[in-house]
Design a protein that fits this description.
This protein is mainly alpha-helical. The protein is 70% helix and 2% strand. The protein has two domains: 41 residues; 268 residues, Up-down Bundle (Rhopdopsin 7-helix transmembrane proteins).
Amino acid sequence: MSCTVTLEKTISFSRSSNQFLVTLIKEEDKKENTRSINELNKRKLVNYDSLPDFLKHNEFVVNYYRSEWPLKQAILSIFSIHNETLNIWTHLIGFFIFLSLAATLMLSVNGVSIPLKLHQELLVLPSFEPKTIKPIARWPFYTYLTGAMFCLLISSLCHLLSCHSKHTCYVMLRLDYTGISALIVTSFYPLLYYTFACDPFFRNLYMSFITVFGLASVIVSLVPVFEKPEFLMVRTGLFACMGFSGLVPIIHKMVAFGDRPEAVITTVYELMMLSFYGVGVIVYALRIPERWLPGKFDLIGHSHQLWHVLVIAGAYTHYLAGLVYLSWRDVEGC
């Protein structure tokens, strides 16, 4: 009798244990399903109204936003379609273009690169025997190419990762503004160093001014309020003023060297560069064309994508100007 009771208790306990385990497994399954659903929801594309405030930058781009995605999924989204896809790839491709240009320039023979020779022949620049055996310093040109690559790569990463979290967005935007400042500042170096190679006073004066201006812009961009949508015009105006301050040394160059074809050709390139940047600033600041048809340019054709293409065009024309500067100073020396 005692054995029977003990057996029944054992069976009852076993059943209770099994029920507990089944319940536990079901609870874990529910939690896992909930986590999976939450992860899927985090990877969904949402509309502008569903975004947290830190991701609200352009109300005219209505759909296809990534919002607070896990970092791994944000990184992998480089291969998916959303409203940042072309923003990422335009500047990523631009980065590799400038990387190849820098590599080609470094593969030089006797200080004169292959693209520089071809460029000189196409422009039919005057041919002189070099006055010096040693070619002009390349570091201002390499610094510019580095600044352009830094700007393009950081911009691409910013558009890729900013959707992860508020902190990530803050950090990436600060780096993006730093990249813009770096591109603008280093763009001045070939212009100033090669134009005023024989006039150290003006060369150092102009280069010091633009470097300080660039550092001040970076410091200002660290202020959190700087990134708010209502300060869009302030941001745009600051970078535009820094860029267009280049008109001063360009005018100086034409006054001093206006009779030289190299000065005229580089000035044409630099005005083209400023035109590309100027149109880009207008498109970016006024949100053209999505302002006119909200939601119609969410994936292709909105202002930020156009701005990216214009930045690459402007940077490339400045690269062509740099080739002329190298040709000029390699031949003329100082």
